[in-house]
């Protein structure tokens, strides 16, 4: 943790004491049980890398993070919609401008579409510039090798040496993330000066695209404030990487000082590391950045309330995003008591639907995939639950790419299992391709048009225009 010098001696002492308290709390958090961490073969080498990460330059700025916090408050109040999308696992080899352009262009088109459908500003959040570590279900793969845990930890190549965790990879990940973020800022602002053209060419190119023509007609300039600004987030998984550069934040969401992560605007805790007694949650409690928690089908309403109590102690709207990933068959059953119990606490969280992770399946030849229809069914269930309870379905969290991959089944071209081998390129879980993603955006646009209230739409559009 760092602080600037130049303050009066009394002030410097107060600041030093405050930093020491935060350092002690972080050390206590890290002493708790941790899941899904690599065992570095050479711990001394790992410590050297962590020391270098501590001195590394920031990837995002605190003012951008504070701005995202404000925008998530609007989402939690029902005045905006959050769209998060990107690769399941970023790789070093795909940290290229064409790949970033494809993913960010897609995110921008989808955001524009949803903004018009919901009549609300859309906050774009890319799974990018840090999504290099993956939690896994099993420690070894089908060949008996240690499982691939993301480019930040080991290599996907199928040899024992390649799968050995290498701490130097954390430095490479940081370097790639910094470069990706710098590029993303420029690319997102530039990409599709005229996104309507991209949307219309999708409609013309895909079978049955004309069924969305009426929705497309309503699209005009982006009504979202700061529509050139992109935010990034990743799973806060690998604690050596995540905790090294934490420093006392210049902004806070309550009376006490907190730690800022300079690695991303938004961080979330995954389904496999959300234990209430575990380190990930205790670290997230110390962060000034907005945070999320994935909640799968085994989550109880009591656990959800505990996440809210711990991660949003001061009742800051949008400070916490609860990312439900129940699966299409369970969302209508499991989500309602959670939403009811959390709503009764009076805290205003962002309710976000991840329709990907509860709908994974394996094909006969061992490929992981997801069906477009299951993804739509989970989103429909999520909207239905919120419509019934009078709460705001605040956002979506997708694994999607603007590339023409063949990883998920179904969609307008009716991709079947036999088609998947053509361009199955994901490093981990299957992503929607560009066409499937646009089809999903149009489908969700129609759901949103059905749920959004015209009066609220007018007010939100008016106020977002006046902020520009
Ligand atoms: O992206 C999410 C997880 O890392 C992934 O679903 C785990 O996959 P596995 O079950 O193949 O380990
Ligand atoms: C691992 C992920 O999801 P979950 O924790 O929900 O399984 C993810 O979003 O990459």
Automatic annotation (TrEMBL):
Keywords: Amino-acid biosynthesis, Aromatic amino acid biosynthesis, Transferase. SUPFAM superfamilies: Aldolase. The keyword Transferase applies. Its EC number is 2.5.1.54. The keyword Amino-acid biosynthesis applies. Pathway: Metabolic intermediate biosynthesis; chorismate biosynthesis; chorismate from D-erythrose 4-phosphate and phosphoenolpyruvate: step 1/7. Gene3D superfamilies: Aldolase class I (3.20.20.70). It catalyses: D-erythrose 4-phosphate + phosphoenolpyruvate + H2O = 7-phospho-2-dehydro-3-deoxy-D-arabino-heptonate + phosphate. It is an enzyme of class 2 (transferase). Pfam families: DAHP_synth_2. Belongs to the class-II DAHP synthase family. This is Phospho-2-dehydro-3-deoxyheptonate aldolase. It comes from Streptomyces pseudovenezuelae.
